[in-house]
Each structure stands twice: as C-alpha cells, then as structure tokens.
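RECORD TYPE: protein structure
NAME: Osteoclast-stimulating factor 1
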Amino acid sequence: VGSCECYHWQSQNVKQSGVDDMVLLSKITEDAIVDNLKKRYMDDYIFTYIGPVLISVNPFKQMPYFTDREIEMYQGAAQYENPPHIYALSDNMYRNMMIDAENQCVIISGESGAGKTVAAKYIMGYISKVSGGGSKVQHVKDIILQSNPLLEAFGNAKTVRNNNSSRFGKYFEIQFSRGGEPDGGKISNFLLEKSRVVSQNENERNFHIYYQMIEGANDQQKESLGIMTPDYYCYLNQSGTYKVDGTNDSKDFQETMEAMQVIGIPGDHQTQVLQIVGGILHLGNISFIEAGNYGKVESTDLLAFPAYLLGIDPSRLQDKLTSRKMESKWAGKSESINVTLNQEQATYTRDALAKALYARLFDYLVEAINKAIQKPHEEFSIGVLDIYGFEIFQRNGFEQFCINFVNEKLQQIFIELTLKAEQEEYVQEGIKWTPIEYFNNKIVCDLIENKLNPPGIMSVLDDVCATMHAKGEGADGTLLQKLQAAVGVHEHFNSWNSGFVVHHYAGKVDYGITTSQIRRNKTKVTLWHLCLSSTFIRGLFPENLNTDKKSRPTTASSKIKKQANDLVNTLMKCTPHYIRCIKPNETKRPKDWEESRGRHQVEYLGLRENIRVRRAGFAYRRLFNKFLNRYAILTAETWPCWRGPEQQGVLHLLRSVNMDTDQYQMGRSKVFVKNPESLFLLEEMRERKFDTFARIIQKSWRKYIARKKYEQMREEASDILYNSKERRKNSINRNFVGDYLGLEQRPELRQFLAKRERVDFADSVNKFDRRFKSIKRDLILTPKGIYLIGREKVKKGPEKGQIKEVLKRKLEFGSLSGISLSTRQDDFFILHESQYDSLLESNFKTEFLSLLLKRYEEAIKRKLSISFTDRLEFRVKKEGWGGGGSRVVVFQRGQGDVAELKAGGKTLSITVGDGLPKSSSKWNQTTATWQTIGGEPGKNFLPGSLNEEKIMKVYIFWRPPSTAPPKLGSQRAPRVPAHSQNNQGNLDFLNVPDQGMSGKQRKRSISQRPPPAPKPQPQPKGPRCRAIYQYIGQDTDEISFDVNDVFDLIKEDPSGWWTGRVQGKEGLFPGNYVEKI
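PREDICTED:
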C-alpha cells in the first residue's frame, strides 16, 4: 500500500541546503547571502526566498522540477508548505487577483543571461495550466503560449553574454474574466535593438529568424527567397558566428511558422513576412563606391532580388538609395530638389531602410497577437515584464545606454515599493520602526532623463541630433562638450576623450560616442513612399507622408523615455511581485559559480537591505475595512457586518483566532501582521468556514437532486404494474435501497463480479425448483446481467466440509425472453430464458423489475416483454436422461395478505387475499424523507447506480415494513419467507420475568441505604401507537421496538418520520411501522 503523502524533489530523502528563506539567515551580510545562494545552487536548488521576493539563479541546464506534479503541488498551497519555486509565486499572484479583485504584475529583473525570459515562460505556462475555461479560453491560452516562440524568433539573438538574449522589452498582460479564466491579453513592446539587423559584435548573431529561415525553409521557399548560406550575407557574416550550442534552428523555424498559424496570421501574410526578412538580407549585400563626390551602387545586379522581394522597382530603389528629396522655400514658393548622397550617406540610408522595415515588421507581429486575443473591456489582469537585462559589453553604444536606463527605472520601482515606501508607511501609521539605510538610484534616473535644471543626458543628446547636419562631422565632439557643461560635475557622471561614463546601480559603464551612435537616436526616414507598391508593406507604414508638420521629429531616446515612464505607471497600478534573477557565471556552464560575479549582483540588487527591511518589518498589511470584509465570516459578531469602530472589529477577529499580540500591530488605518504563517492561519480558518457552508449547500442540492431522481424512478416503477397487478399495503410508498445485501462488506459475493462492476440491485430471494422446494439465492443485478449465487458444502480438498458461495447461474440480457407475473398481490415472478426459466420470490420485485427493464433496454435496444396472468407456466432444467418439462403456477383468491403455497404434482397453487386495487399508483410524496446510512460524507449514491466506485453514502426513504436494510458492514439477519410467517401468538412469556417484591428486597439488603421511592409513572396524556413490524434503529436519534410494542406517540410529521418515546427514550421511527391506538 503506497503512502498517501506527496513526494517532492526537495521534501524527502534530500539533505538540507542552506535556508529556503534568507530572512532566516543567522548573519545578514553579503558573505552569508552569497554563501547561501552558492550552496543551494551547487545542490541544484535554484530558487530562494527573501520573504515574498523570489531569487532565481540560472542553472544553465534543464531542471527536473517543472512537471505537472509540481503544478499540482503548488496549486492552492501556502508559500511555506513547499520549497521555494516560481510556481509558488505564480499561484500567489493568481490567487491574490481572484481574492482581492486587483490586477497583479511580476517584475523580473537581472542582467543579461540571468534567466528572465525562461522565468516568464514558466509563469505563463503555470497560469495556463491552473486556470479553467472552455474552447474559447483554450484558444486564448494557445495564443499566449505560442506568442513566445514567435517573438523570440524575431526579437531574440545570441550575444556574448547570453545565447537567447531578449533584444526588446515585453510587458505581457494576461487578462482574466471574473471567474479567473484567461480570456484575453495584450503585449506592449519596447525599443527593439534595430542596430543588430545591420551589425553585430564578434561572437554574436543577428536575430534568430534569419538563421531559422536559412536552415529550416523548404526547397520551394529557398528558391523563391533566394536563400544562400549565412556567410553570403553581409548582414550576417560580420561576426563570423552562425551556430549556437544546443539550438536547432531548423526545428525552431517550424515552431515559428506553426505559431504564426495558431495566432491567425493568414498564409499570404506569412509569405510576405518571410519575403521582407529575405529582402533585408539581400538589401545588405548592396554596396556603394565613391564616384566623384557622390555614391554609386557598386553592382546593379544585386538590386534585382531585394527589389523583387520588397515589391520595389529596381531603378527606383537605386535612385532612392543614392539620393534624397529636399524641400526648399524661397519667396513664398516651395521647390523640391533631389540631393545626391555620398558613399557614407548612401550606406546609412540602406541600413536605415533595413532597420525600419524590420522594426515595423516586428510591430506588425505584436499587433497580430494583440488582435487575436484582445477583449472589449478589461476585468482582471496579470502582467509579466520580460525586458532586456542590464548589460556591459566591450563596446557599449546607444542601445546599451537605453537598455540600462530602463533597468535603472525597474530598480527604482523595486526600491520605491520594497524599501522606501514600506519604511515610510510604518512611520505614517505610527508603527515602531528603526530606519534602514539603502542606495536610492533615483539620482541616476534623474541624471539620464531630466528635462531641465540641469538637463539630463537624453535631453542633451536630442538637442545635438536636432542640430546635426547630414554628414554629421563633429557631432561627437559637440555632444561631449554639451554633456560636460550640463552634468560634468554630477557625482555619477564622468567623461573621457571618446565618450562618457555613467555610474549605474549595477556598476560603471563607459559609452563610446561616434557619429553613427548619435545617428541611432534619429528615427526619421524619408523612404517610405518607395514601398507603397506593396499593399502589405504599405500597411506597415500608416503615417501620412504628405503632412506639412514641421515640428522636431521624435527621437529614439525620447520615445524610450516615454515608454519607460508609461511602463512604470502601469506597474504602479498593480500589486507587484518580484523575481531577482542572478547569473552565476559567464561560461554558461552548470554548477560553475564565479564568486566575484555572484557577490557583485548581490550587492547591486540590494539583497542585504531587502532582507533587513523584511526581517524587521511586516509581511502583510491591510486597511481595517478590507480586513473586516475578508475575515468577517470568522465570528458571529462580525458577520455579516461589524457594528462598531473598524479597529475594534479587527482586534476582535485577531483575538478570536488567538493570534499572539507580538504577531501584529495596529496602525492608524491599517493592521500589520508580522509573519506569513499568522496570515495563513486566518486564511485557513476562513476557508474552513466557507467549506462548511459549501458542504451544507451541496448537501441540500444533492438531496434535492436525489429526491427528484427517486421520484422519477418511483413513478417509472409504479407504471410497470399499473392496471395490471394488485399492490401490497405499504408497497406504494416503499423506499428503493438497491443493495439489500451490504455488498461492500461481502467480498465472498463480490468475487463473482468484475473488479469495478456496478451493482444496481442485490437481495436474498427464494428460488423454487421443479418440486417447488424453496432455496435461498442471492440475486445481483448489474449492467452486465443477472447473477444467482447459492451455497454448497466443499466435498474435498483442504476446505472440505466448509460452506462456500457458488455462482449457480448468470443470465445474460440477450438470453432473456420475458417476465411473467400474476395479477394478485404476491411477490412471485418468472424470468424466461432460452434454456430454462426461474421462478423467484422477492419482497422487492417492483424495484428489481424497474431496474431490469431499464438495463435490458440499454443493452439490447428494445423493451423486455412482461405479461400478467394468474396461470403461469415455466420450463425447468433438464436433468439426466429425463426431459426438462414444464411446471404450472396457479394463483387463487384467498384470505389475508400472506401467500399460502400448496404443491401438487406439476402444479403449485398460491392463495392470497385481495390487495390494493390495480389502479393504485399515486404515492404520497409528502411521506418521504431522506436518511444517510454508513460511509463518509460527501459521496453520492442514487438508486440504480450502486457501487460505481465505493458505496459511501446512501440516500433512502423510510425503510419498508417487511424489513430494515442493514448498515454497511453489519451482519444481516436472514429474512423469513413471507409465506412461512404465519400469525404468531403472544410471545411475551419469553421476556425476562418481573422480579417482584423479593427482587426489591434483595436490592435493598445489599445497598447501604434504601433508595428513594420511585416516582409514580405519569399516565400517558397523548396518543399511543402499537408496532405492527419490528424496527431496529440505525442512528443514535432513532428508537427501536418489537412487534406489538405499545409506546407514546409524541409527534406526527408529514415527512413520514414520527417522534415517539420507548422506555423513557425519545427518538424517530417510520410512521408506517405502527398503528395508532
């Protein structure tokens, strides 16, 4: 027998590695933090907590604990119940969204290669698994998951620090319905690194899609796109790197195309997407030479293929690459002049076109995803921020400057919410608090983005771009001079002869200044009317080209600054969660820990200060009214509403759960709870309350459904005998139980059934042989057939002489030809079968027949024949050399309700008095009630579906007068056949005789003092009743009595369960077991 406990990779048979939550560290130093992270990382424990903040170390290998087992384990579990995991944080976000009805977000931060993109994938995968929904919701889930490979193909690339580095920022909002089902989404993308399209550093690659297309395209695609080997293309061969270890570009290409299909991009648009990608590659092979003072295409043959793929006339492409249109105004007149470009300007124009095409194509893909999952109105959402990490390269340009600026902003959010705002809140609420010092990087953010007094680096850069001439000589020197004048004395800024240095929160970064770097801040390109011959490409550039607007064009730096601030505002409106990713080495190898790199990240991420604030602070804080609304259900005084001051109501709740006073503090408007365990105590008690109420509702609903089901079955059963057979007294209102043998506790009977064969009916019946001798048989009806089980004495073997159960007969539904019954009120019926028939007697024939007819019709697809006549004939089994023959059963009118049998030759005469009229069918629904017998609560049982798994609960009406069903597991007393239950005399003489006066004297002689005189028995004032059947109470609130017992009737209830008093005990009993006197 297996253990019922869940196995987990960190819960059993493993050594303890450091501490799960670094708030519990004995020493709070950088050394202790680094040592703990290293110890856990080397033991393959990549996740660690600092309170609610998750620290994730990139293992550089696939870990074994991201399966469905872990998803099931973390779903609905408290944080402390399982080892640290990203699934725990994901589940916490999802539950908080549903509980608090507030939007959530997770900020994943860390340097390039720390594992942020993978973390985002696991979060989206977990939420997709645990949230419900139908086909529409599943479609949204598919798009959310398929958006990852598509955006990674077009937005990720290999760098020297990361083989799958995100070269764009992505904020993915998964939108949910009120029921928690993901029914929409939205992606916001930030600053794609366009410069990678045209140039890469050594040991780096262009975007993945280029290599995927070259390796994975089929022959037809390669021919139409003019695909060659990667070293043929100037935009790919600069770095000399074409392959990435562990990456299958051909397979990834198929996944990219499949993702476009799932998202709903039409086939012709997919083709044009690939044509643009191929066209950019061929465009890069166009080179220019200096001819006089202007640039000239070196080889015009190379114009044809990019022009074909991009839908541009080759001559016009050549013209626009080597010249530009310039507007001139003189004396109120406008004039267009074509200015010829030199070699450098022509090369810049070519690259600008390539970058613009790729950036617009990327925007199109993002918009296609948004259109596929957009919803008209937002309800709840969980945002996942996966953005480029902080990075320092050998040469750092404009893109690295923008990337590091965005990371500064994210670090500022973390500081504002986890260090600064938390401490300020304690002071405002009057909580005792000792301030903890930390580095606030707002000063660095201001250095970069300030507009005035003094202007920041981005403002100075925009100003230089606005005054920069076409060729741009001297722009680098101008920028350095202006920067030195504006921020030269800033403590986080230094300049040098070829650039400047910014002291970021993660370290000093030197940025080189060149004319090309400055040009990257300019976004205006005047070639778009070239592309208007292609409808698809025209849609990528929706701007009005004929506008007379003369304002300064938007620069890349101003755009990223606006996007970063919009992102911060969006995140501040959500409840934030944090994942701090750490990169353990630069080798990208597992179990390789570089001490200095780990320490550096621990320092600049502010983990030590984070631990100190968390250790001294409070894990949970909530406004008084919100706290009351959530936990009011815990006490009667607070539910449904607290009448009094909110603060007193909160105190009342905390005291009601016996929370220690050192675990919470009361602020001016909020309550602060110190440890998560204390909060989970409140949540657990709240869930128990709701569980209790839910069970009551479920019980009532199931009771209602079972009652309706029962009424339907009773009506169906009554219709079988209606106008055809007289009914017994009390038969109309008899309950259906199904299992009268207690098969759950009778393995000797269940051995003849299949392992999980369902039992519809089971009872002990009388079977009559050819001589009309009565033999006991256990009759069992299942969806597979009818079983007749008898008992025989073992004649040989080790069990010789023992009585064993034997399967006497199994009747398949296909072999049955009909059923015969009399028109009298007897309990006999004949099962007609192809070989020989069976004459049986059962007190529960109506219930058996109704279930048999239903199962027969389900199996054979036609109704079973049933006949009613007072002369029945049945065939007997052939024995020996003699023929089988037949027997006759004749029913006659007699006296009384008990059938009398008289056998003579081959005929059996059965005499019985008149019963209820044949037209008796309407049963009194108000005399029914339900009762549970045996088993554990929560499992349903309906008549006709017994033992589907295990009989745990049986809903029944009051028990039949002829017998009482046993509790499951109890021994069932054998039932005396109806025809042998003759009128019995008074058996009171068998009771223990009255002790008389001598008995009283004996008791008095052995007692120390005479007992007080017994109180006279009060004369009964109310009605009394006499038992006409024996009843044995099944539950503690029921009474028991024998036939002819007389006792007090206290209350008659229309449900059929009356209240009486027997020998001083009050209890319930079925009203149709007695008669009033």
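COMMENT: DSSP finds 27 helices and 38 strands in the chain.
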